[in-house]
Design goal:
- It is a single chain.
- By secondary structure, this protein is of the alpha/beta class.
- Helices cover 50% and strands 18% of the residues.
- The chain is built from six helices and five strands.
- Helix 1 crosses helix 5, helix 2 packs parallel to helix 3 and helix 4 packs parallel to helix 5.
Length: 153
Amino acid sequence: MLIYIGADHRGFALKENLKPVLKNLGYEVADVGAAVLTPDDDYPVYAKLVAEKVSASPADVRGILICGSGFGVDEAENKFPNVRSALASSPDHAYQARHDDDANVLAIAADFINEGIAEKMVKVFLATPFAKEEKYKRRLGEVGEIEDKTINH
């Protein structure tokens, strides 16, 4: 599976540390940036690049985005059709995002999550399948209806 990863200056170090972890797990990694630490860059740039890729193939790729609080990238990601970004705070939280809500982007708060926990979250997020239970599918359908109404307005 192809994983798109991106981070602003506050998430840059964590992104760089997660890339070899992902590769060692057998994932193909596409780093959308930042390519170098740029102290005054803006998270929406990288969120948009990941979101465009995930939005185009939501079932076939995953995204990982990192900024200081995690809120910025999560908020930006969820503006795109077919993107279900989840800001997780623990491996259990990452599990539930995939299992219950079929999240396809993991947002990580670099200021609050250390490297070891981030690695565990990424591993769990990528290994967990969507449960496909009727209640979860129904809820995602309801969210899709909201998305359709708001995009078409």
